[in-house]
Structure prediction request, 347 residues.
Amino acid sequence: MDMRGDNDDAIDRVEGAARPTLKTIAFMTGLGVTTVSRALKDAPEIGEETKKRVQLVARQVGYRPNRAGVRLRTGKTNVISLVLNTEEQVGGFVSDLIYGISEHLAQTPYHLIVTPYSRTNDPLEPVRYVVDTGSADGIIISRTEPKDARVRYMTERGFPFATHGRTDMGIEHPFHDFDNHAYAVEAVGKLAALGRKRLALLAPPPNLAYHHHMRNGFLEALGDTGLAEIPFTGATIDHSIDEIRARTVELLRRPSRPDGIVSGSGQATFALVAAVEDAGLLVGEDIDIVSKQSARLLHLLRRPIYVVNESVRLAGRELARSILGAIESENVKNLQSLSAPSPAELQ
Prediction:
């Protein structure tokens, strides 16, 4: 008697999909469908050698559980939703974040889907859609705000989530973050050691939580070193390259211009360097720049740039670990991580 306990084959027949099923693996291994199913779920009653054999064959034939069948049996989708603002999360950041998350999920039943929204939309809307439709078992969000409505919404509904970035709203939740406070302190210290006296900060937008972390670190270090701030107005790292370049040229043509800049983004630093040269100055002589970067490209631009690397792939792996732990209701304290900046280096 075929005790399948599975809906994959029935659904495949309806859809007419020619893909490997549990019966395919059972035929190739000489095992029963129920044994195969339990081996793929890492059931403790199945021997390790049997599990390895079944999992090897499953990988070789490209077996993937049918999500509809899984949901019927377990109530789970085996889907993680990564909610991203597609207009602002561009370039290597997105690909590295997805790579890191997917790398960690590869050895689990979970699959990653990207749920996009644009800056003209309410950022709560895609989160509300996933929660209300139950189209994923957990959500990862980024660009957190100190008082983030998405965090409150998911917390109130008991929906598993993790955030790329912290909040400041009295809610303990899973997160991974880069220590932007420590980065700014280190950057100012580097510029002070180079003899710079007047510093400007090109920061993230003020509505984001990591703006405050970076800004507070910058001001704290200025106080400790006795250096002066030259306000960088009219631009953030979210502005276009052309806008940052124009605002920087204006900044450098002031009577009391900065002789050092701390940049919150590698992409923005490309615009800073162009503006320095537009103003007839030289990086490394007239002005020094310390920049954070997530893609290791700045050394291809100008060597006299001091760089602190942020690993977005590491962030992806940590976020995947956090969201899986949230789904399993693990202790939230164990699902929070903060990565320190690597030492600034001349590249």
Observations:
- The radius of gyration is 25 Å.
- The chain has three domains: 8-64, 79-176+313-338, 180-309.
- Residues 209-225 form the longest helix (17 residues).
